[in-house]
Amino acid sequence: MIITRPRDWARIKANLAEVGAEKVFLMGCGQCATVASTGGEKEILQAKAAIEATGRTVTGWAVGEVACHSGGTKLEARKHVGDISDADAVVVLACGAGVQTVADSVSKPVFPGLESVFLGNVVRHGVFEERCQMCGDCVLDKTAGICPVTTCPKGLLNGPCGGMWGGMCEVLTDRECAHVRIQRRLTEQGRGRGRATLEPKDFSKKLKPGSVNLREKKGTSAGGGRDE
Fold first, then answer.
1. Do 59 and 77 touch, CB atoms closer than 8 A?
2. Tell me: the pLDDT tens digits for 129-161?
3. DSSP at 206
4. 136 close to 225: Cβ distance less than 8 angstroms
5. C-alpha to C-alpha distance for 184 and 92, rounded to whole angstroms
6. How many angstroms separate the CA atoms of 9 and 91, rounded?
7. What is d(CA 152, CA 139) in angstroms, rounded to the nearest whole number?
């Protein structure tokens, strides 16, 4: 899931002031932002109160099922077309993908109310960890399902840095070194000896913007090339 955090409130107010917005519509997300407690109904109502405290009017609000789903967001916008038409701007409490989807669905200026931080694993309720950077050149088959690019603060591929001591990370001192974890798991699985050195990451496989079209027999791959 996409982990988000609240955007600086002064920046949001500045955005609204730039377009002279006195009336605002709020849009949240029923998936990632709701789970992360940044863009669900509770947070939308908090944002509503904060905006009204500035003397502005909130014409309405909605928390769609998935903000980044184009069809669903357009349907949600149609449900609230009157409130959106009355607004001077829309503030979206969702990830950047959700903000862009809303901007494609309405004609009013759209501003983000959150910052997209990372792609996160849900460890337990309210606890999230970044474990994947979606690099397009995955090495998890070689590293026992632990990504060194993400879980090592220095992004080292082939072993710990000189600062590792007693198996603990030099940067995140309360955590085990990612490469210690990788080596232990490989050893436990009988794969620990003779692991080949990993080649430098091929960042050309992470071309932007990525696109996948499952409707085509040979759709455009996430790396920007063609599927073979």
1. no
2. 888 888 888 888 888 888 998 999 999 999 999
3. S
4. no
5. 44
6. 12
7. 14
Supply 193's token pair: 């000896």
Show me where the domains of the chain are located: 2-117, 131-194
Give the up-direction half-sphere exposure of residue 126: CA atoms within 13 A in the CB hemisphere: 0
Q: Give DSSP secondary structure letters for 130-189.
A: E-----SS--TTTTTT--HHHHSTT--SSS--TT-BTTB-SSSTTSB-HHHHHHHHHHHT
- 1-5, 28-32, 101-105, 201-205: the lowest-pLDDT one: 201-205
State which fold the 2-117 domain adopts: Rossmann fold (3.40.50)
CA distance 205 to 137: 6
Strand partners, 60: 25
On whether the CB atoms of residues 154 and 171 are closer than 8 A, the answer is yes
Give one word for 168, left, alpha or beta, with left for phi > 0 and alpha for psi -120 to 50: beta
Q: Which two tokens stand for residue 139?
A: 């090495």
Q: Which helix (H) or strand (E) holds 24?
A: strand 23-29
Closest CA to 156 of 204, 207, 115, 197: 197
Q: 32 by DSSP, 3-state: which?
A: helix
The CA distance from 182 to 141, in Å, is: 11
Residue 12, SS3 per DSSP: helix
